[in-house]
Design brief:
The chain has helices spanning 20-32, 43-48, 58-71, 106-118, 142-146; strands at 6-13, 33-41, 78-83, 98-102, 125-129. By secondary structure, the protein is an alpha/beta fold. A five-stranded parallel beta sheet has the order 3-2-1-4-5, sandwiched between helices. It starts with 5 loop residues before the first strand and ends in a 15-residue tail after the last helix.
Length: 161
């Protein structure tokens, strides 16, 4: 084990249209943790969060996530679990030592640490990742990819034929 890395860190999201922002977040988790617990929002939870109806089904998002990990030889260091609420196992699993979040969801890490303290668990080390910007200087997002504004790597979509 690398003494500089935490034993287990968590990261979570819907990961719809897995894009460079998601990839950056997930890779940061592997950078700071020996093992990574990846919470993947269930379809039902995505609906409850008000995500658009055209979010890809859980099985499609799971397949893309597994493929992303496999191509980088990271699957043996990851455990993907269904995420049914905004907190996931990070709020109650004493084995989790760190949490990787985006700038826009950093506030959720504070809530999770409050839940942990209330349960007598040690607060998580929080790693905040900046949003990845597309070629136009605006953040890459699943909604922008869905709308065809940018591709999954933040490149501006070409003119429609």
């Amino acid at each position: 084990m690398n003494p500089k890395k935490l034993r287990l860190v968590a990261v979570g999201g819907t990961f719809d249209r897995l894009h460079v922002g998601h990839m950056t977040l997930i890779l940061k988790a592997f950078e700071v943790g020996e093992r990574v617990l990846i919470g993947l929002s269930t379809d039902e939870f995505a609906r409850r969060m008000g995500k658009p109806a055209d979010v890809e089904p859980y099985e499609v998002r799971l397949r893309e996530l597994r493929e992303f990990l496999r191509k980088r030889s990271l699957e043996h260091r990851a455990e993907i679990v269904p995420l049914r609420d905004p907190y996931g196992p990070a709020a109650y699993d004493g084995r989790v030592e760190g949490l990787v979040v985006s700038v826009e969801t950093a506030w959720r890490a504070e809530e999770i640490n409050e839940f942990r303290r209330a349960r007598g668990l040690k607060p998580l080390r929080v790693f905040v990742v900046d949003m990845v910007l597309a070629e136009d200087g605006r953040p890459v997002s699943s909604s922008r990819v869905r709308a065809g504004e940018v591709d999954r790597f933040g490149r501006i979509a070409g003119p429609k034929a």
